[in-house]
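CORE FACILITY INTAKE
Project code: CF-77B
Contact: R.S. (postdoc)
Sample description: multi-component assembly, two entities in total
Requested service: structural model of the whole complex
Turnaround: standard
Below are the sequence entries exactly as provided by the requester. Do not edit them.
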Amino acid sequence: MNKEWLITLIFFFLGAVFISSSIDFNYFNLIPELVKKLIEPITQGILP
Amino acid sequence: MSKEKKILGIESSHKRAIRKLYTLRASRFAIQVIFLIIANESLNLLLPLPVIGLSYPWTSFPSALDMLQAMIILLIPPLLPLGSIIFFNALFGRIFCGWICPFGFVQDVIHYLTSSKNFIKSSLHSRLKYIKYIIAVFSILIFIGWAYLDSINQLNSLASTYGRGVALMPYTSFSPDATLFGTLLFIFSLGILPNSISSFFSSFNAAIFIRYLILILVLLACSRVTRFWCRYVCPMGAINATFSTRSALGIYRDVGKCDDCGICNKICPVQIDVVNAKLGRIDSKECIMCFECVAACHTRALNVTFKRR
């Protein structure tokens, strides 16, 4: 296996591990709450 | 005569290349529109569309960078956004930029409608393209700095000085895509457009003025230089570029077939020197995987393939 493929595979598995860990942490359900918590305040002061 | 015909010429092999180019563009256009619709919740407020959103319309569908920002500021390990970025870029390179990003789509439309140039002076381009990396690093440092502001009290104090948007979502507050697909659509959808020009300006505050100003300046720049935002400013593009340097999918140049006509260089929207690609592979960091060079190549010297070496 050459170096190019090795780097690609390391990135690929690192990404896969991060995604699978985020499923363990239940991040998919957490994100809508985050969005609401963080983005909602932006409306304050901008909307009449 | 269209821009493409001027670039490609009118020989028969070039005519075939022009047909391929138009077919590719139509396909890419269709996919970009599909993603624009399904990934932009704000549109659902105007039209009854089957969108997938996160139940908040103020921004476009939150990007990985928005989520990265939110999670870092709240001291939550940003595994999902980081994992998605690394995983997809390792496989497909910056295909997100070329085929999915709604703001990329807007820039493509501007390119087709105006006389924006694919080329600026090479020495200037080679310097400017590093700006997006500086912005990306600076943005992440700001997120980390915000995260260590020691509690919500300091965030609140920051919010009272600079506004809550800047305090909690510093990047999203000023990104032109959030303004275009979130703020503006939201304002339209709520029917809260001011009924006169004077009331429009009187409703302005500094934050919203800066947002609109950034959006207008970026759109104007895009009308002069093709994909200006992607090339020189977008921090998401910079992060994608970092992880796509060794992407499995790539564009390769067959030196034996290439007649060095330079059409690929002329058609590339991000000014990559395709003809002089080192070791046959074109620069995967800057390439947005639009495949226009591949379609435009009349000798079929360029191929999209998974790694060959």
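Facility notes:
- Confidence is low (pLDDT under 50) at residues 49-60 of chain B.
- The first strand of chain B starts at residue 249 and ends at 253.
Invoice: internal transfer
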